[in-house]
Amino acid sequence: AIIAFFLYLNRERLAAVPELILQANPALILLAFFVFYLGFPLRGYRWARLLRQTGFGIGVRDSQEILYLSWFVNCVVPAKLGDVYRAYLLKMNSPAQLSRTFGTVFIERILDIFAIAILGLAAGFWSFRDGMPPAIRLVFIVGIVVVVVLAIGLFTMRNFGRRIIVALPLPHQVRDLYDRFEEGVFGALAARQLPMLAVLTGLIWLTEGLRLFLVVQALGFDDVSL
Known about the structure:
The protein is mostly helical.
């Protein structure tokens, strides 16, 4: 119903889309399609590794299926509610604890934000090495600030989070939920895991960038570089 509603609202603009797609290079579109869906096994494997570190084993096929369903939900509803749905699906089909699962989803998103910021900064410096426009400089500053804030937030949660929660006048159920959430976050983020997680996250976002590049090339915008 949501998809149909927005299709109706944008029906005049969307009417031109089939013709534009038919004018695109079919080989590049198929390659972009392949690259995009190559990201799902990588994401499934990464999430399965994070879950195993928290003491819950799940197969890559199962994690990939849940991720695929949550991705669809994210495309339909706002506020990344697909991530909530992902944790709910895992809880409904396994004995996994919901709050601990949220912890793995949270740290996965943190890894993604770090990757986007680092890859964006690297690509930006490369693209604008001869002169950086003020707007791009502002984006860089925002990216750096976001990374620093997230790093401080994780450090605070790791070292003082429990003390802060205990000091607040909260019911014990909330404290228990926080404890399991923190176990999910930092149990999944073991030091020995970081190199592999960094590689997987980098590959995931390279597939995103490559897919977009292939679509741009397929539509004939040759002046946009990788």
